[in-house]
Amino acid sequence: MAVHYVAGINEIPEGTHKIVDVKGFSIGIYNVRGEFHALNNYCPHQGAKLCKGEVCGTNIKSQVYQYIYGRDQEILRCPWHGWEFDIKTGKSLFSDKVRTKKFQVVIEGEKIGVVIGA
Ligand code: FES
Fold this sequence. Notes:
The chain has strands at 2-8, 17-22, 25-32, 35-40, 54-60, 68-77, 84-86, 102-103, 105-108, 111-116. Helices cover 0% and strands 50% of the residues. The protein has one domain: 3-layer Sandwich (Rieske Iron-sulfur Protein), CATH 2.102.10.
């Protein structure tokens, strides 16, 4: 387990992300309302570059025939077939069993690191 520093916190303003290559992984670092999250840039469906997808929200629980948009900036939609993933957990929105790998993020001063090999 090792921390690899990949960016400065000022490089990834709120609502944006940066894709970095570390130890053979392509990883998307996301700033969701000031919290940093790191996801594998690989969709478990058919292998698309997941982090090239749109960051958005989703329909949240509501009554029948009601559509309420929520969780803005927390959802990553795969660019190929639209599977959606929770940026904070890496889990898909449709099944707890389908997820993309999430890496632990370490903030040290102004630097953002990801933990590889945990
Ligand atoms: S490859 Fe991502 S949804 Fe199909």
